[in-house]
């Protein structure tokens, strides 16, 4: 299973702009076991800015992962199956969502659902992600891979996944202070003013967190219809 995990890391590091269909068929669908599939989904959600927690391996109440971002709390069940998934799995996610006090429940599977499971998912408002959804998730996360060298290492070594560990609250406050002082600042100017305490990758992670917290807003500085660089506007604490 670790070979499959390492193959993911190698692929994702070099896959920019390439189709993921073959990768998904050969690695995610055919080579992964259930545990590796859970780790893979955890990595994808971490790259999207979520804090991901693994539930206990036994008595997990039908939920494998809890993904948290701002006020959103998602209960996720991962099914690396070949056979179709029945309605029992949908009910497990619904029950686990309630037990873990989540705002949303999602079943992510490499298989398809039975008609009864699809009907129950609609009735209980449980999201169902199939192979097409997983592929779309991968394509989104490939774009963020440059900022995730430490996450790759933690993923492969099965350590706790958490983007926020890459920087301190003091670093975040310093960056916010720079933006607050100018009110509107270009990315290049912000990077120059922050070079003493942060690098480019860390700065991007801090900016992403501040945007998620609603303290700043990122946009593109356009001139004559062309994008000239990103700018950040201070909204408030």
Automatic annotation (TrEMBL):
Residues 30-137 form the Restriction endonuclease type IV Mrr domain. Transmembrane segments: none annotated. SUPFAM superfamilies: Restriction endonuclease-like. GO terms for molecular function: DNA binding; restriction endodeoxyribonuclease activity. GO terms for biological process: DNA restriction-modification system. Signal peptide: none annotated. PANTHER family: MRR RESTRICTION SYSTEM PROTEIN, SLL1429 PROTEIN. This is Restriction endonuclease type IV Mrr domain-containing protein. It comes from marine sediment metagenome.
């Amino acid at each position: 299973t670790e070979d499959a995990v390492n193959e993911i890391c190698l692929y994702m590091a070099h896959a920019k702009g390439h189709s993921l269909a073959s990768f998904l068929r050969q690695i995610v669908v055919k080579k992964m076991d259930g545990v590796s599939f859970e780790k893979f989904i955890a990595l994808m959600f971490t790259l999207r800015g979520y804090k991901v927690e693994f539930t206990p391996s036994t008595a997990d109440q039908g939920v494998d992962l809890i993904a948290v971002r701002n006020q959103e709390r998602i209960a996720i069940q991962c099914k690396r199956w070949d056979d179709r998934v029945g309605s029992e799995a949908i009910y497990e996610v619904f029950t686990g969502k309630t037990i873990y006090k989540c705002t949303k429940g999602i079943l992510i599977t490499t298989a398809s659902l039975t008609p009864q499971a699809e009907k129950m998912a609609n009735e209980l408002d449980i999201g169902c992600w199939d192979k097409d959804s997983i592929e779309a998730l991968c394509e989104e996360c490939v774009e963020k891979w440059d900022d995730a060298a430490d996450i790759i290492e933690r993923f492969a070594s099965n350590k706790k996944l958490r983007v926020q560990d890459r920087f301190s609250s003091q670093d975040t406050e310093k960056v916010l202070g720079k933006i607050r002082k100018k009110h509107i600042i270009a990315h290049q100017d912000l990077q120059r003013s922050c070079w003493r305490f942060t690098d480019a990758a860390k700065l991007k992670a801090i900016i992403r967190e501040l945007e998620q917290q609603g303290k700043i807003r990122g946009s593109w500085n356009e001139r004559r219809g062309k994008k000239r660089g990103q700018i950040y506007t201070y909204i408030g604490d």
